[in-house]
Amino acid sequence: MEGLPRTPESDRMQFAIIAIETAAKKMDISPSELAERLEMQGLIEGRLFKHYDTLHTQSADYVADDIIETLLNWENEQ
């Protein structure tokens, strides 16, 4: 059984899912809680998708650490 064909959008979505799952594990929270917090700060679209071309060349751990640091900084600024 074959899956759906790969598209740039599906690649970006898969990247974001992996980043969120990895970061959530590091933070010891659920991926859905992290996704909600990232969405509230506009970081899924504004960080993961917008900078996909650069970020997807990095390791999952690097991207997770980057998104965690960015989220915490942005939340502390509010």
Task: Write structural notes for this entry.
The protein has 78 residues and is mostly helical. The chain has one domain. Helix content is 77%, strand content 0%. The longest helix has 20 residues. The radius of gyration is 13 Å and the shape is globular. The N and C termini lie far apart (48 Å).
Query: What's the shape?
Result: globular
Residue-averaged pLDDT, rounded? Answer: 94
**SS field, number of helical segments:** 5
Strand content: under 5%
- H/E element sequence: HHHHH
Terminal CA distance reads: 48 Å
| Unreliable segments of 5+ consecutive residues | none
Question: Helicity level, as a percent range?
Answer: over 70%
Structural class by sheet pairing and helices: mainly alpha
Biggest sheet features: none
Radius of gyration: 13 Å
Total of domains: 1
What is the number of E strands? 0
Keywords:
single chain; 78 residues; mainly alpha; 5 helices; 77% helix; 0% strand; globular
How are the SSEs ordered, and which strands pair?
Layout: H1 8-27, H2 31-41, H3 43-49, H4 52-55, H5 60-77
Helix pairs in contact: 1-2, 1-5
TL;DR?
It contains five helices and no strands. The protein is mainly alpha-helical and 78 residues long.
